[in-house]
Specification:
By secondary structure, the protein is α/β, with parallel strands linked by helices. It is 31% helix and 18% strand. The chain is built from 11 helices and 13 strands.
């Protein structure tokens, strides 16, 4: 049996009882290590789960999945995913590969950022299509995601922006030379995402277009959702450029414009003062 098990968003204890029971009876346990991260390291997880973990990077999951599925038809194998197991299309592909090999599978769900964003007070049924914002480079500065943001805004829907994660990435030079040398991990911040968004807005104006998002559009920055040191800050897109939310992982919400009164009241708990760009703790107190 192949088990795809969600770990939740915070730390080792966020795994469900059902998920933990499955982990402890599996002969091999893989930890997917590239679409998201927890606030604790591998050693902490191993101690709590009582099992050794095998790190599975993007290359192994997407190109060498047969290694993960080996003997899963005669023994139990676990594939652990931060958040919910089906939050990334890569993991659906693993299920399809297992089915093609006649391997049974079971998904054990958990909380993901897709639902946990409700912690800021915005109502989940008022979210539109989710987008990803990637790190720009000197030669690659994609703006296509902004079309979805504009469509959501035009429909009065909020947009959850998932921010880029670079783990075990190779530089172009090392990739060309075939050298297995990797860059240090990088995690996009709300500040970086907001700065790129402002540049997209400016580019649209330069082309004579009227962007649906401006410097004054209300946004929400979130960091380490589900952890004890979770941070939330609500303010303009311009304010998101300087707000300090601390370490990873971070997400950004672009509101749909019109807020329900309860949404507005909840966001007021996390508002960034005009003279301060400090974040709010999840209980609304300044930190």
């Amino acid at each position: 049996m192949l088990y795809l098990i969600g770990l939740g968003l915070g730390d080792a204890k966020d795994i469900t009882v059902k998920g933990l029971e499955a982990v402890r009876r599996c002969s091999r346990v893989y930890l997917e290590a590239y679409t998201s991260v927890l606030t604790v390291g591998q050693e902490v997880l191993e101690e709590f789960y009582g099992r050794k973990l095998i790190l599975a990077d993007r290359e192994e999951v997407e190109q060498e999945a047969d290694n993960i599925l080996k003997d899963a038809d005669v023994s139990d194998v676990a594939f652990l995913v931060v958040g919910d197991p089906l939050g990334a299309t890569t993991h659906s592909d693993l299920i399809l590969r297992a089915r093609a090999l006649g391997i049974p599978y079971r998904v054990i769900h958990n909380a993901s950022i897709m639902s946990a964003v409700g912690c800021c007070g915005l109502q989940l049924y008022k979210f539109g299509e989710t987008v990803s914002i990637v790190f720009w480079t000197d030669t690659w500065r994609p703006e296509s995601f902004f079309d979805k943001v504009q469509k959501n805004r035009q429909s009065g829907l909020h947009t959850l922006c998932l921010l880029d994660i670079k783990v075990k990435e190779q530089s172009l030079e090392n990739l060309i030379r075939g050298r297995k040398l990797y860059e240090p991990p990088r995690y996009m911040t709300v500040n970086q995402a907001a700065q790129q968004l402002l540049e997209v807005v400016q580019n649209q104006r330069a082309r004579g277009e009227e962007p649906a998002v401006t410097e004054e559009t209300l946004c929400v920055g979130l960091a380490r959702v589900g952890a004890e040191d979770q941070k939330i800050a609500a303010g303009t897109l311009r304010q998101m450029c300087t707000v300090d939310l601390g370490g990873p992982l971070q997400s950004l919400i672009i509101t749909g414009g019109s807020l329900h009164p309860l949404e507005a009241e909840m966001l007021s708990l996390f508002s960034v003062p005009e003279t301060d760009s400090g974040p709010q703790s999840s209980n609304g107190l300044c930190t």
